[in-house]
Here is the input.
Amino acid sequence: MIASVRLLALLAALAAALPQAAAAGSGAPTDATRLSHSPWLALRFEQGGAEVPLTAKDMLRSEVTLKRAPFSIVLPVRGTDDTYWIAAWRDDSIFAAAEPEARANPEPPVALPPYFLPGTGFADTAAGSGTLILGAEGHNHLYGLRLGPDYYRHVFNVSAIGGDDARGEWREDPVSATKGPLYLVAWFDEDGDDIMRHGEFEFLVLHFR
Here is the structure.
């Protein structure tokens, strides 16, 4: 009951903010549209030891503007075996692949998007290499030490962006060389049923300046 009330309050706050965002045009975000964390999974961004605010674009999509320097995504600690799935790509086609309209309905369940299918987690070191890997058919599988060495704080530190280039060859560049924007779909399977439901995922756009 309490969770439902909080969810309704959040939706109301976001709905009230969106008209003001439209009125503001292309100018700087207003206080009403700024978020300290993402609206569904409560993800936060930090850079240079300081939090970076997000901007609400709609009920599902938030955007953040970062410097071309290493940054961190801070993820809530929910339990002892938390796993976060983050797909990242160069355009917003991964948003459409998530089929958000269909997932707003409780039944029937919609199949997972291609980048979250079983076996699509990108290979990485046991404690994470600090690389955000791009791919429309795979994801960054964050669990255990990949969420950082601190048991009471989950953090994905990003110092490089990697992925296949136009020739299909692996390329990894420091964040300082990133052109952006980058498009992320984040998912936390809260009830552990392997179904990506509304309220368990969200869209993020990373701009760089």
